[in-house]
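Person: Please comment on this record:
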Amino acid sequence: MPTKQKSKKKSKSKSKKKGKPAAPPISKKELAARKRQRAKQIQQAIGALVTYGGLGLVIGITLYFVAEPKIALAGGGGVAVLGLSFKYPMLGLWGFMIYMPFAGTVTYWIGGGSPIFQLAKDGFFIPAMIGIGMWCKQTGNPFIIPKALKKSLIHFIGLLSAHSTIG
């Protein structure tokens, strides 16, 4: 007995994804503009790296002949880190977070407990926070997001500074 084959209909509702609608396709002009913008950002990053790295190298070489090699390493590297952390503050904060677990190792292994190497972590953090503060001021965003938290943090910082001056 021959059997009849039933035609299977694909329902369009099953093939469509539920949830967010698909983004409209990007035009060729917009794609080209994005590529140009990305290339420009890469060029700026390379330029900043070369500029701050070169400045750090010149300062490091100068300090090498004037002072100790450890001071030259700290001075040259410090200048490069300060400049790059200010120009790219989010990467500076990431650098700070990555450096913190190794801060003691770097301080005592390379610096021998030198106070200059104790301040190395501040080279990441302080310029990055200044850069983020300037960005918040330009865009009108608050530096501390929750308004209720602002008063508590000011009191906390006051207690910390009072504790550090007393003890």
